[in-house]
TrEMBL record:
Keyword set, alphabetical order: Cell membrane, Membrane, Transmembrane, Transmembrane helix
Organism of provenance: Vibrio eleionomae
Domain of life: Bacteria
Name of the featured protein: Oligosaccharide flippase family protein
Family membership noted in the UniProt record: Belongs to the polysaccharide synthase family.
Lineage, top ranks: Bacteria, Pseudomonadati, Pseudomonadota, Gammaproteobacteria, Vibrionales
GO CC entries: plasma membrane
Main localization of the protein described in the UniProt heading: membrane
Its membrane topology: Multi-pass membrane protein
Entry's localization field: Cell membrane
Alphabetical list of InterPro entries matching this protein: Poly_Biosynth_Transport (IPR050833)
Transmembrane spans: 22-40, 46-63, 84-105, 117-138, 150-169, 175-193, 285-307, 319-342, 354-375, 381-402, 414-432, 444-469
Length: 497
């Protein structure tokens, strides 16, 4: 009964997170679609490089306050005050460091204009640190409704401001000032939606640091692993290449960031409720993987086969060089469900150091490979992107080994969640290819027909796979029962009407 209630709360939390993501990302996508027609790839490149540097130093000052508060069995005022105060102190120090190193980073990347950009960016973490820590109580209770309303309100307010600045300034400053305004509104809004008023306290800094010392390292190494490619491209290639890479990455990863990732927060919060039941914890993790890959695998294959149509319709003709980059980057989504779930579980079990070692290996592999390509005189963005995709295979293998070694989950059980959806996805890929050879409408119609055809091919084939494997795989039995339950609910509603 307790587990059923927990699953219900997690599901509701996921749906509110999903609603928040869809609404805010819909606004964000519309904003991006407008901005890429106003600004040049070079502007996105400058903004991307600034955000990489900013986020890196923010990671170094991040002590995992959110996860520390969510994980704690008892949420006292002293706990909230100490977490809020420590965050402010470290983010203030972070802002000073960013301002101090701005000239050196600009020289290293060979972009002099980054100096002033980073000076402005240095105030962003300081502002964000003052956000009301009390809103984490919503997450502890798996109540994401007020957080959803806040995120949507912030996005709706910042959207016209950013577009207006882009039309006026016609450069990267519009993107950066938009980020600054977003932080200010987010802080103000956090005090509007929650009555808690934090006060300065240093009493539990020691306890928080004992929890967070590995979190700081893990968050930093994880960020470096995911962004070192774009940072090195900023040094090896022109800024417009970084802009192409970053915008392609945003659109390539939309299925994961907008559908799967919203479940992460509620998934992590739910672990506290089953922390003493390892079997149930593992079952929840594997169910998450199975559902995630039902969406990620066809999305990755679909984006890859439709790369030219997506770029032409969504991004515009001047962005067509991004098409092969978009297609290749979509394949990186195949590692994300494994990685994000492992992060949540190991963080909860206070085994974050294992994540650090995985990240360090990948950072060295990506950095070393990119440097080797540059030394060989390679200047094509597609070549660097292809190498990045090859390395993700290594990353997936490392994650599977970690699941087996640390959590005792058989590799084959996790691998089936990834491989089984690939069979119908390959058929879908072939079907879309054949369709594109036969239709010759305007690009937007070709894209729409291809998406519909892909869904029509993949969905029934995947249902057959679920039915075929439900006796062998508990997670597929769970999916089968879930589908039957949803179908019965829909049938009852139709009959009632």
């Amino acid at each position: 009964m307790v587990i059923d209630n927990l699953n219900k709360k997690v599901a509701i939390g996921y749906l509110w997170n999903l609603a928040s993501k869809w609404i805010t990302r819909f606004i964000g996508i519309i904003s991006t679609l407008i901005l890429i027609r106003i600004l040049a790839p070079n502007d996105f490149g400058i903004a991307t490089l600034a955000n990489i540097v900013l986020a890196l130093f923010v990671m170094l000052s991040e002590v995992g306050s959110d996860k520390y508060v969510i994980k704690s069995q008892e949420c006292t005022n002293e706990l909230l005050n100490s977490a809020w105060s420590l965050n402010i102190a470290l983010k203030f120090f972070c802002g000073i460091i960013i301002a101090s190193v701005a000239p050196y980073i600009a020289d290293f990347i060979h972009e002099p204009i980054l100096r002033n950009v980073l000076l402005v960016c240095s105030v962003i973490p300081i502002i964000g640190a003052f956000k009301n820590i009390g809103i984490l109580q919503f997450e502890r209770d798996l109540n994401y409704r007020p957080l959803t309303k806040l995120s949507v309100a912030v996005k709706l307010t910042v959207f016209p401001i950013t577009i207006g600045l882009a039309l006026w300034l016609q450069n990267y400053w519009a993107l950066l000032v938009g980020t600054l305004v977003s932080e200010v509104i987010g802080v103000i809004g956090s005090y509007r939606i929650h009555p808690y008023r934090p006060k300065w306290s240093m009493k539990q800094w020691g306890k928080q640091w004992s929890f967070s010392k590995w979190m700081v390292i893990s968050t930093t190494t994880g960020y470096l692993r995911s962004r070192i490619d774009a940072f090195l491209l900023g040094k090896f290639l022109p800024a417009n290449a970084v802009g192409l890479f970053r915008v392609s990455q945003e659109f390539a990863w939309l299925p994961f960031s907008e559908v799967i990732a919203p479940a992460t927060r509620s998934f992590y919060a739910s672990l506290t409720k089953v922390s003493n039941d390892k079997k149930e914890l593992i079952e929840q993790l594997i169910r998450y993987q199975s559902i995630a890959y039902l969406l990620v695998v066809p999305s990755a294959f679909g984006i890859y086969v439709l790369q030219d149509q997506i770029v032409w319709v969504v991004m515009g003709e001047k962005w067509m060089p991004a098409a092969p980059v978009l297609g290749l980057l979509s394949l990186l989504m195949l590692s994300m469900p494994l990685n994000i779930a492992l992060q949540s579980v190991l963080t909860h079990l206070s085994k974050v150091k294992y994540l650090v070692w995985i990240d360090v290996v990948m950072i060295l592999a990506i950095g070393g490979s990119f440097v080797a390509l540059y030394q060989q005189g390679v200047e094509e963005l597609v070549t660097y992107t292809l190498l990045r995709v090859i390395l993700v295979i290594v990353f997936i293998m490392m994650l599977l080994i970690s699941y087996k070694w640390i959590l005792g989950i058989p590799v084959i059980r996790l691998l089936t969640s990834l491989l089984i959806p690939m069979l119908p996805a390959l058929v879908m890929y072939w079907g879309i290819e054949q369709l594109l050879l036969m239709i010759h409408f305007v690009p937007v119609i070709n894209l729409a027909l291809s998406i519909v055809a892909g869904a029509a091919i993949f969905t029934p084939l995947m249902l057959i796979m679920i039915i075929a494997f439900r006796k062998l795989l508990p997670d597929y039995q769970y999916l089968y029962e879930l589908i039957i339950h949803v179908a019965a609910m829909l049938r009852r509603k139709i009959v009632t009407r």
